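Q: Joint fold for the lines below.
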Amino acid sequence: MNLQSNDFEIFGIAPAFAVDRAALDERWKALQREAHPDRHASADAQTQRQAMQWSVRINEAYQRLKDPLKRAAYLCELHGVAIEAENNTAMPAAFLMQQMVWREALEEAGSAAAVEDLADEVAAARRAMLAQLQVTADELHDFAALAGQVRALMFVERFAHDVEARLDQLGQ
Amino acid sequence: MALLQISEPGQSLDPHQRRIAVGIDLGTTHSLVAAVRHGVSECLPDLQGRVILPSVVRYLDPQAGGAGRQVGFEALAAQIGDPANTISSVKRLMGRSRAQVADVDKLSYTVVDDQGMAVIDTVAGRKTPMEVSAEILATLRYRAEDSFDDELFGAVITVPAYFDDAQRQATKDAAQLAGIPVLRLINEPTAAAIAYGLDNGAEGVYAIYDLGGGTFDISILRLTRGVFEVLATGGDSALGGDDYDQALADWVLQAQGLGPVADAAERAALHREARRVKEQLSAHAEVVFHTEVEGRPLNQRVRVEDFEACTAALTARTLAAVRKVLRDAGVGKDEVQGVVMVGGSTRMPVIRRAVGEFFGREPLTDLNPDEVVALGAAVQANALAGNSREGDLLLLDVIPLSLGIETMGGLVERIVPRNSTIPTARAQDFTTYQDGQTALALHVVQGERDLVADCRSLARFTLRGIPPMAAGAARIRVTFTVDADGLLAVSAREQVSGVEASIDVKPAYGLSDEQIATMLQDSFSTAQQDMAARALVEAKVDADRMIAATRSAVAADGDLLEPAERAAIDRLVDALQALLPAGSAAEIEAATDALAKGTEPFAAQRMNRGIQQALAGRKVEEV
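A: Joint structure:
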């Protein structure tokens, strides 16, 4: 294993969408215990530089592996399928319809309670999509289809972010 | 007779092999130094047995035979007699320009601007905030060296969690001036968590609620077997105990039917009395407020309920920040296993009750809120120096404010989002805006808002020597690296040519507390306004790009156009140009669309010509 190893290799886990989050967190802390610059604060400059590079690389892998969307996108990349979210915005009509309904609901939501209801609905939709992603990745091994589902999930996460911004605004 | 020292059984190192490492809380009003001795973290006292050092430095007149300076209690005692040369609250000036210091004219000493940095005019010459802080740090260093009769190996110095890059850098510079090797800068709430967690063997998710005199920090941490993982940090850097005094004073004036107090001395007396009454109300149900306004005595009965009612909005603001940081951490309040109270203002019962009700559990107040930060820093210093037997302590902290870069139209592209675990490196690819562009000006900013103008500018640098290419063809990778102290370095590299530029971000000033507070707050309340502003900026960028592209196309291939066609295109360009200064986003977008439509046939003709030329070129090559 070296700095060029892929995220899954660095964390010593099988490259799959399903990840045991508790084990991942545990592994992250174990790796940082070795690599973190604080562990080498009284070492020579060369060692400190190495520690910094490793610690940064471990944090990079961790933030990608712990986030389901980034993890799925990374799996696609490892299998040679580009996500190309900027150039590929084609989505099924029903999905786009749903997005529009949500956007309207957010615009019209007057109370924090109404926004929270919407947040719950979006969270439920997101959970369903993640379950779908897992089947596509780990059972069907269809990474082209996975890329499409990742793009759809990006829309949903962006919307969830807007809902959250609205909740902040309402001071909740 | 000198006493012989006998070391404790089980202590790993001989006292003379141990490295002397201390934790320093460099505070706005007072500072402390602590160290781990015999396995216990404790604050080191001065010769009079006092652990607190007032953060006050007085410079003496060299002409009058004054010998240098006074630091701490001595300087504090001299402040009334020599206000102009006695510097207090210098922490507020660290990493700032004069304009960024709140109420700079109300300070008792003179602050001037020197190349973008706030500096202080004294009888002994101009002093930078770093120099003044260095006097305080050096005093603590001598105290530690006298305590151990040995040289200092290094120190961990604490900073408020919301401190930006410039303020952290200024703190590090001050330590350097004081001859202190900095093992690490750590955040104050995190230091408090270490002191608390290690004392109590705590496991699980903890909230650190830190309400000081002028600032409020809230951090959420997960503690697991010696690992202190900061999940999120936030707060409101313009909210503290001083605001509670102000609210009480305002309420008293209102109850007496009085307006604002004009006389400065009476105003000062009013605030002093407000603080006294506030503190008394922590132990009594009712206190009489005595002061003088316009020479007439004022007596107002204040009940606890009155105080709580007139400060309820302030307490609510802290809880709004708590909700926000819980959301950032992805943690529900029922998952929080303990709430640690830090800072003198958390002595107010109303705060303890509000926090207790919010989390549904009694907050933890068993540590001295003044000492807890230095005690935690000492534990970390001991571990960093390699003295620690447990060796298991690991701190995984985060960056408090997002870092980004300015893109076209004054928008911020966020590169490192707030609450990213440090150290971290993040890269983002950018491209050029114009054909043949050979340089790229990079502007590094910190903050949560979408517009550059609303964020703090940290540094500017230029990547030069990019080979001329068509707009959008260059691939410039900008990498932000944030080290374990939370300090930023930026590099840029053009991927095709390999041209590179980099900078250690070391500006002469930083964010003011008020600016950060406003920035954080505005990002709560003006998200809507931001979106509208963003839409307008984007519309203008698109319009500019469209006008430039059309003009260059007409210049290159204008011969393809009939005079009437050319006149039509010119009219569309002029119409769009005229809208730019004052038009709405929708109007500009509509005019941009009209120009795009109007130039469609021309674009098709140009494309044909281009393809023909390319074909012709190939034929020549083939021949």
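Q: Anything notable?
A: The CA atoms of residues 33 and 134 of chain A lie 31 Å apart. Chain A has two domains: 7-66, 93-169.
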